Amino acid sequence: MAAPVMDTCHVSCCANRTPNVVSWGRGGLIAFGTCNSVALYNPQVLIFTACAVCLGHSGPVCAVDALSLSSSQLLVASASSDSTVKLWTCSSDTVPVLACGGDDSRVHLYVQLNGQFQRLLTLSGHEDWVRCVEWATKGKNKLWLASCSQDCLIRVWRLFAKAATEPVQQTDAVLKMKENVFQVSGDGEFAVTLETVLAGHENWVYGIHWQPPCVKGDSVEQPLKLLSASVDKTMILWGPEEDSGMWVELVRVGEVGGNTLGFYGCQMSPDGFMILAHAFHGALHLWHCDSNQGEWRPSVVISGHFNAVQDLSWDPEGDFIITVGSDQTTRLFTPWTRNGRSEITWHEISRPQIHGYDMQCLTMVGRFQFVSGADEKVLRVFKAPRNFVESFANISCTPLEKLLGCNDIADLPEGASTPALGLSNKAVFQGDLTSQSSQQDSEDFNSLSNQYKESYFQPLKLTEPPTEDDLLQNTLWPEVQKLYGHGFEMFCLASDSERTVVASACKASKSEHAAILLWSTTSWKQLQSLPCHSLTVTQMAFSPNGRLLLAVSRDRTWSLWRRDKLPPLPFSLYANTSKDTAVHTRIIWSCDWSSDSKYFVTSSRDKKVIIWGHCGSGDSVGECEGESVTPCSSVLDVGDSATAVSICPYLCSDQSYLLAVGLENGKIVLYKWRPSEDLSSGSDWSRCGETDACQSHTLTVKRLRWRPRPGRAGHGGNEERAWVQLASAGADHVVKIFNIKISAL
Fold first, then answer.
1. Is 374 exposed, middle or buried, given 0-12, 13-18 or 19+ CB atoms closer than 10 A?
2. Whole-angstrom distance, CA of residue 318 vs CA of residue 323
3. Global pTM?
4. Is the CA virtual torsion 450, 200, 30, 466 positive or negative?
5. N or C end of the chain: which has fewer CB within 10 A?
6. What parts of the chain have a pLDDT lower than 50?
7. CB contact set of 335 (below 8 Å; sequence gap of 6+)
8. Which tens digits make up the pLDDT trace of 455-500?
9. How many Å from the N-terminal Cα to the C-terminal Cα in the chain?
10. HEC secondary structure over 476-507
């Protein structure tokens, strides 16, 4: 079998914002739900897969558990908000016990009798919704059941087989827990008793998990250690004391500060040396036990957006990507090599913007500066602080002088913080840190002024990717400018190759609001307004030579603006299509330029991809006076709505152009295109690769961007020129990076 053309280099995602959506398997893989997919994760590999689909519930499925009945048989139980529990099973001699926790504050036990599950017992005690239940096995005839609730308590129950006859106690009265007894036909009499009640959390307890069984010698033993996770932002590891048997708190870990709302569930590694929690905003939190010192420490773990990813951009050197999403965050990812290891993995090392509006677009303006737009009328400009540049230099093993060039790092602010109830990131300088420290020492913590405290920045000296706690509070970038001018929510942004001009467009239902605004990146003043379209401009792109600005719109047309060669360099309309001359019949979603500025491409909901230019001239677009801009390719039908398109900045070995097309169904397809005089046959296009089911997004591809330099980020060597990298953003909350060997196409 031939090797795949596209190799998945990185997948950024997080867990769904729902309880108990993460599971840690005995083989070491972590499985978690992300959007409508299941992700399998270990420190080096991330894949998406589905083995079977079970249909039957009429409402959302909120809990799933499984039991291996034999090497080839599996019993799956699923609970839904439609008030039903469904079981998917095969016949077996095993008699499983099913525990269900409900919003009636009770735990119900079901036993399989004559092929049907029948309720035999109800356990009372909790005073609010039961959020999670889990079994553990101890010995041959003993089961332990843990349950947690919104009453902030955990209850541990013991289920055991009663002897046929029990001797009558002749001694004085003995304090004994009440036994709930039930009969199982053919298997005798069983009892359930309350073992202990664990109180330690200060808010709802959403998740519990027993330490997995481990092999000791020739037997499998179940350690009696129970992990719990709560909305109070802590996880607790519980266990009985060896001497007294009393259950006590063994370990407590968690978050301090931040704007999160606690943990939704927890899991433990098979060996018991790592514990994992997933939080309200989907983030995974991993701790490992230092075997030498016995201390629990935070570990590096995968992260990502918890809502649709709307836009992404590479930095000009191709060393990192910045993404924005409907989860109201801006995130920065870069490759990293662990100490003593050769594998390169991508990680989030900064969260420059945590906003109060859904993010929609961004564009890089230089290496450490970007402009972002959200569901508001304002554009915001951010610049990297000194703490980020130093941390990035450490993680990427790049000298500071190379990163900054002639810029003086001493002039940069140390970091940024967000004022209480504010949306703007405020710069924090070294002097602010000193005064902040003394102020905190003198203030009364319980004073009224501290009820809504500012999220204070603390400088980091990073040599590895930061934890979620630090990403939330200590990796913000200062906001240096606000740009006002649009009348509705922002939709798209673009900047020229010289990083001197930024173009912006907002949502529009009338022509007066659909104008493109141009901004100077030196003064941040508005330069010009470019009216042409009648509906929202969906995407824009400057030509690599900086002379032209291309815009595509919901009105099914495109416009091309040319910059005059004489100061003050205003743009004027050079070419456009109208409703009468348009080739596309539906919304044009995306556009891009070839690296030589000779051609540009448009992609549309009508499933068409078209390349435009001065056909046959060989000149850059806009350089031929009197020459019209016409289709230079045959119309490519990609079979589905083409929501994203991007042209690779490097030619294939046969001098053809390489294009990536993202579809509404989540697939990414690679095409090669060569100019041809005969467009009737469609021979100018050739399909050369596509993502398979595991590599594709599961929802719409929102954005595609090629790395601006050849090679794979983080790698070195002459052989790297044979590779290119493609980044994609999807409505399925996922960011992906693909390695493509262009020399083999």
1. buried
2. 14
3. 0.89
4. positive
5. N
6. 1, 43-47, 49-51, 91, 168, 171, 444-453
7. 344, 345, 346, 396, 713, 714
8. 578 888 889 999 998 998 899 999 999 999 999 999 999 999 999 9
9. 16
10. CCCEEEEEECCCCCEEEEEECCCCCEEEEEEC
